[in-house]
Design a protein that fits this description.
This protein is an alpha+beta fold and 194 residues long. The protein folds into 2 domains: 97 residues, Ribosomal Protein S4 Delta 41, Chain A, domain 1 (Orthogonal Bundle); 85 residues, RNA-binding S4 domain (Structural Genomics Hypothetical 15.5 Kd Protein In mrcA-pckA Intergenic Region, Chain A), CATH 3.10.290. Helices cover 37% and strands 9% of the residues. A hairpin with a 2-residue loop joins strand 1 and strand 2. Helix 4 crosses helix 5. The longest helix is centred in the N-terminal third of the chain and has 16 residues. The relative contact order is 0.17.
Length: 194
């Protein structure tokens, strides 16, 4: 996060507030050089990859799918990333980070529309209902995450924390990412490489 210069809420609960300079020996006193176009594009792509916890191959596949849609490529890419089950569990406040949400999903603590799921990359649709299993609702990590009152709850999902229930009301918009992002740079990055 410090090398990118931005807080990524999906990656860590920590903030770069205390040390807002790049990591390394010369971080605090190093003057920021002007970044090339490639460096800016790469940084934006890495923000997406690191925040959502996906690999390069997975991101390429999503970009290819976003290109094939009728909407703007960047907006569709953000929508596809935001609709992942692990992200919705995180944004609903049931987990402190996306990796923690992914682990909860992988261990079978959630069901989607009444069916138990253990694949974190499942893409949710409008109207889907995510429910935490009865046995899992008292897990310490979930209680702690709900008590922290995350301000990241988007307006496209309805959350009932007392019932451990989430409903996807709408599909997320292109500006739904919870951190500053220039999605056009990501699209430009892949336009030259695909």
């Amino acid at each position: 996060m410090r090398s990118l210069g931005v807080d990524l809420p999906g990656l860590s609960k920590k903030s770069i507030e205390r040390r807002p300079y790049p990591p390394g020996q010369h971080g605090p006193k190093a003057a920021r050089r002007k970044l090339s176009d490639f460096a800016r594009q790469l940084m934006e792509k890495q923000k997406l990859r690191l925040n959502y916890g996906i690999g390069e191959r997975q991101l390429r596949r999503l970009v290819k799918e976003a290109r094939g849609s009728k909407t703007a490529t960047g907006d569709k890419l953000v929508e596809l990333l935001e609709r992942r089950l692990d992200n919705v569990v995180f944004r609903a406040g049931f987990a402190p980070t996306i990796p923690a949400a992914r682990q909860l999903v992988n261990h079978g603590h959630f069901s989607v529309n009444g069916h138990r799921v253990n694949i974190a990359s499942i893409r949710l649709r409008a109207g889907d209902e995510i429910t935490m299993r009865e046995k899992s609702s008292k897990l310490a990590i979930v209680e702690e995450a709900l008590a922290s009152h995350s301000p990241l709850k988007p307006d496209w999902i309805d959350v009932r924390p007392d019932q451990r229930h989430v409903t996807v009301r709408d599909l997320p918009a292109g500006d739904a990412a919870p951190f500053p992002l220039d999605i056009q740079l990501v699209v430009e990055y892949y336009s030259k490489r695909m």
